[in-house]
Amino acid sequence: MKYSQTDRGIRIQIETDDDIWHIYNILELGDLVTASTMRRDSSVTDKIRAERAEKKRMTLGIRVEKIEFSEDDLRLKVLGTIETGPQDIGQHHTLMLEVGDSPIVEKNHWKETQLERLKRAAADTNKPRMVFVSMDQDEATIAVLRQFGLKEVATIRSGRTGKQYQDDSKGGDYHGEIIAKLKLICEPNMPLVILGPGFEKEQFSDSVKGTNMFQSVFVYHTGQCGMQGVNELMKKGLGANLLRESRVGIEMEAVEKLMEGIGKDGLATYGTQEVADAAAAGAVETLLVLDSKLRETDLDPVVRAVEQQKGNVIVVSAQHDGGRQLEALGGMGAILRYRLA
């Protein structure tokens, strides 16, 4: 993502589908979004001919009334009333924001958390995505780590039983099927993390290294395979520096620390009022806020209070296990410097 200030607002260059998620999290009802779009020519007066008229590209400004985000295909629809443009002022239109677009977003007030999100998204743009293969001898799950969460891509079953497995120590079609799936999603400089119980992961590592598909391949032991194994690895902060430094890795490790503090030593609290009180007392070392809660509530006063006391603020995505844990706590928690009375 790239962004720049204009005389009307902030222009955001959408470079990856991760950027679409970030824009979804900063948009609010009532914003004015200006972007290039397609709409039928209103100069055609005959109604029947107008309905059949070819759509033309034009730039329209839409006052946002509804926002729809599809996690499956990472598409963002912005619905509202046309406020600026060459035609149809006051009529409804839908903007489809996609990779390559550069919308301008105007707000009455930009929250600090929204500006910080833009800054973080721009800084994370050049970080490669990471792909996981979580496996044992029977099944492998492929997942991709994006800036905002983990997405399960495919599950491959080995179909091995008994003697067949004994004669198939190198993986056979099982490994070949996994590699074929990986070829469809492999990107330049994308690291591969192979994990799971048992020894199948080491054998698969040998298979995939022979393809030269990935510059970096990491192998880790976990007690489980599938998405449970990936979440186990992320929550414990295990693995390579790249894994620990990823946005999702930082968020999940922080939530895990929050849960430990709540359950063991009391150096943590949760809930909107409880966290606000701790921030006012200067007791917050790390503030954790769910991104969906930021869309609904202006928490800038709490964020400023934490930052003024040299505390850390982490916005947690709702699209991974750590976010779902934080959501169950009301969407807000804090790791404390000291226990509160």
Explain what you see:
With 341 residues, the chain is of the alpha+beta class. The chain is 36% helix and 30% strand. It has 3 domains: 2-111, SH3 type barrels, CATH 2.30.30; 130-245, eRF1 domain 2 (Nucleotidyltransferase, domain 5); 250-336, 2-Layer Sandwich (60s Ribosomal Protein L30, Chain: A). The protein has a 7-stranded antiparallel β-sheet with strand order 1-2-7-3-4-5-6. The longest helix is centred in the C-terminal third of the chain and has 19 residues, at 247-265. The radius of gyration is 24 Å and the shape is flat.
Please tag this protein with its features.
13 helices; 60s Ribosomal Protein L30, Chain: A; Nucleotidyltransferase, domain 5; 341 residues; 3 domains; alpha+beta; SH3 type barrels; seven-stranded antiparallel sheet; five-stranded mixed sheet
Q: Can you tell me the residue ranges where pLDDT is under 50 for at least 5 consecutive residues?
A: 163-171
CATH second-level architecture of the largest domain: 2-Layer Sandwich
* SS strand fraction: 25-35%
Whole-angstrom Rg: 24 Å
Number of domains: 3
Net shape? flat
Mean pLDDT: 88
Q: Work out the oligomeric state of the chains in this entry.
A: single chain
- How many strand segments? 16
End-to-end Cα distance, whole Å, is 44 Å
Strand order of the largest sheet: 1-2-7-3-4-5-6
CATH topology of the largest domain, anyone? Nucleotidyltransferase, domain 5
